[in-house]
Hints:
The chain is an alpha+beta fold. The chain has helices spanning about 15-30, 35-40, 45-80, 85-100, 105-125, 130-135, 140-160, 170-185, 190-205, 210-225, 235-250, 265-270, 290-295, 300-305, and strands spanning about 230-235, 280-285, 315-320, 320-329.
Amino acid sequence: MLMSFSKPTAIGASSPGDEILAAVKSGIDHGGNLSEVYDLVDDLPIKESKALYIRVNRVWPKLTGNYISNFKRHARNAGNDTRENKTHIRDLRKELESMKSLADRPMKDVLKKRGITILSELRKLLIPNTELVLSTANETLKKERRSLIAYAGLRDALIKAAIIPSDSTSLSPVTKAEEDFIRQLSGLDRKGLRIMEKNRKTAEKSKVPEPERKGVEDVNIMRLLAGYNALEIDPNLCAAARDHSKDMETHNFFAHNSPVKGKKTPWDRAKNFGTTASGENIYMGSTDPFAANRGWFFSPGHHRNMFKPGHKRIGLGQHNRHWTQLFGN
Length: 329
């Protein structure tokens, strides 16, 4: 990959930098752990570290540019929807939707057997990721990426040894470029994706705690995968939900009806925070928002609430191991 490096001027002469480059190339061609090679950089005088860094950095933009261009070309082809994929997506969504019409007991059984499997299949079809895209790449592109990773490791070692200020690793811009491009290939509803982007800004502006924001985003991804609309985050619903979660722990109860005066129903609690609600789920047992969402996913009544088409807004509130999820029309 880095064949444009200059060779030693004297016949048979070999500098430590040349030997390190040769070792990296050998590692790329034959496999193996390059950490020992990177450790050799620590033994170089700073002057030689900087000289080797200049050599690597001279070709680094072209190396990364070529790879990203080739990656995008492959990802674009790999991400093309086929008629078969669209039919399969439609069938999977119908199967998931049909579960909601079952009685609670059979619905719970089928959710455990097929529910998450269906979402996983839809995720693979609709949300491509770097690993999945690269798994279908030809050997040339895979070797390009291995080379990039190898030289990125060397570049980082040289930056550290030469005491060159840096806020990120060499590979960070590459992985970001991969992720940004793949995100454009998502088969999820574009309006839903715009709502999720707006939610991130709303959550930041209103200082919604990150676990709550992530939990809302997780629900929206599941809804979009299943073919429903994304929900707009309502910071007031989050506050009302958070308050109920706190009350449940403080007053030692677990119910939709609260013993606290003025907070009896979800509708009362939403009104107290200047908003309205149309549904509520509660959970206890983990500080992880994804655990709460999975608990609700497998519970028939909560599942129907999470995937109700009429919902337009959502709020999620955590207090320690208690979670409250509120919906609004």
